Amino acid sequence: MKWSIEDFVYGATDGAVTTFAIVAGVVGASLSPSVVLILGFANLFADGFAMAIGNYLSTKSRIESIQRERKREEWEIENNPAQKIQEIKDIYSEKGFKEELLENIAKVIISKRKIWVDTMMEEKIGPIHNNNENPIYKAVTTFFAFYLVGLIPLVPFIFVYFIYFELSDSIYTIDNVFSYSIIFTAISFFSIGLVKGKVVNKSPIRSGLNTLMMGGIAAVVAFVVGSLLGAYVK
Predict the structure, then answer these.
(1) C-alpha–C-alpha distance, residues 182 and 83, integer Å
(2) CA-CA distance, 175 to 30, in Å (whole number)?
C-alpha cells in the first residue's frame, strides 16, 4: 500500500481545524463536556468519511479522464499517424527546433509508441504523475489522518470525562480542560505545518506558523459564534 504524505497533510489539517472549531464553539456556548465529545466524535466520523469519499471520487475521476485521453491519443496515432507526426513537429517547432534537428527529434519520439503517446499527453494536459495512484489508498490515508489528528483536541475532554466521569466533581474546570485542548491543538497545527512545508519545499517554520494562524482564526470564529448563540439562543 502506497501512502501519500499530501493526503495525510490534507486530512490532518482539516481534522484538526474542524474538530477544534467544534470544541471552541461548544465551550463558547457553555454547553456540557459530553456535548463536546458527542459533536466531536460525530465530526470525526462523518466529516472524515465525507473527505475520504471526496478524495476517492476526485482521484478516480482524474485517473479515468487521463485514461480516456490516452486511449484517444492511441487511436489517433493508430488511425491517423501523419497528422500526429505533424503535431509533434508543430509542438517542437514552437519550442525553437528547426529543420534537421526538428526531424531527428520527431523520428526519436515516434520510434516508440509509448514515448509518442506520453509526449502527446504531457503536451496537452501537462505532466502526469498519478499513474501509480490508488483512489482507495488515498481515501484511507485521508480518513485516518483526519481521525487521528482530529482526535487531539478531544483528548483532554476524553481524559476528564472518562477518568473523573463528571467534570463538575473533578479538580478540573471546563476552562482548564479547554486550555489543554488549545495547547494540544496548537502543537498539532504547527506540526502539520512543518510537514506541509517540507512537502511543498517551503520554509517549515513559516508554514507551521501559517497553519497555526489559520487554525487559530477558525477556532476564534467558532468560539465567538458559540458564545453569541449561548447568550441569545435559549
Answers:
(1) 63
(2) 10
Q: How far apart are CA 138 and CA 88, in angstroms?
A: 35
Burial 129-140 (b: 16+ CB within 10 A, else e): eeeebbbebbbb
- pLDDT of 53 reads 94
CA neighbor of 219 nearest in space, from 152, 171, 161: 152
Beta carbons of 157 and 129 less than 8 angstroms apart: no
List the grid coordinates of 100: 534537421
Task: Please name the residue that has the C-alpha cell 496515432.
Answer: 77
Which CB contacts under 8 angstroms, 24+ apart, belong to 114-121? Answer: 116/77, 116/84, 116/88, 117/70, 117/73, 117/74, 117/77, 119/88, 119/91, 120/73, 120/77, 120/84, 120/87, 120/88, 121/66, 121/69, 121/70, 121/73
**pLDDT tens digits for 55-66?**
999 989 988 888
The dihedral over CA atoms of 83, 85, 86, 89, expressed in degrees to the nearest 10, equals 160
> Which ranges constitute the DSSP H helices of the chain?
5-28, 33-79, 81-94, 99-110, 113-125, 135-150, 155-164, 174-199, 204-232
Q: Whole-angstrom Cα distance, residue 88 to residue 122? A: 12
User: Cell numbers 517547432 label which residue?
Assistant: 93
**Which residues in the chain show pLDDT less than 50?**
1, 167-171
Query: Nearest 5°: CA angle at 70, between 66 and 74?
Result: 175
